[in-house]
Amino acid sequence: MEMFLGDGWEVQPAGGATGEAYVARHGDQQVFLKRNSSPFLAVLSAEGIVPKLLWTKRLENGDVITAQRWVKGQELKAHQMKDSQVASLLSTIHGSSELLDMFKRIGNEPLIPEVMLENLHIQTELAGLTTKIIKAGMEFLGQEIHKVKDFPSVVCHCDINHNNWIIDDATDNLYLIDWDGAMVADPALDIGLLLYSYIAEQDWAEWLDHYGITLDRSLRDRMHWYVVAQTITLITWHYERGQPEEAAKFQDYLITLL
């Protein structure tokens, strides 16, 4: 990587699950590098959703390296997820026609509930998860699936953990990073995960007002369906990786949801 950048650059891993992110430094200059990042990074940058894209270059082996402006900032704390700035940025993302068009152009089909449920059946069966609570959760998803059908799709981030929200110390701009798992889906998927994880239920209506929609019965049902589905996904994920304690925590949470 240093050879690619030129003399004087020092490159270090930036952490993260993929191991494809780096910080490059040259004197006072500092940039964030990523190998084979999201193909719609340019659109995310243009709309101010992620730090500014500086350049993109393709290596001889076919890998694509992107460089973004380094942001000196802080990850949001869990309690900051209730801020109106978070709601406004998520609304901007979900409302971006340019982002949706780009995502569809690269061949991403909307994630429909029927496919999501079918995939969950396969995942739980392969993992051998046959507990009563898993069965109850799967039955709930099957019985309630009619409530989440045929809603408009948007680009969803799908990992709205507070660690992925960065606020720039210099400008107070808020960014949502790590777009590797994004997909086209019902916006209730993102909204539900965020509200259930971070916002007290009595404050949902106010938060959604900043987002720009009204909390009604339909939205409640859709959010709940996607949170149940995501919880079963997380139980399976931890179980398959030999993390029974984490899986048990999410099973207890699934009990409260049902």
UniProtKB/TrEMBL annotation:
This is Phosphotransferase family protein. SUPFAM superfamilies: Protein kinase-like (PK-like). Transmembrane segments: none annotated. Residues 13-225 form the Aminoglycoside phosphotransferase domain. One of its GO terms (molecular function) is transferase activity. Signal peptide: none annotated. The keyword Transferase applies. InterPro entries: Aminoglycoside_PTrfase (IPR002575), CcrZ_PhaseVar_Mediator (IPR052077), Kinase-like_dom_sf (IPR011009). Keywords: Transferase.
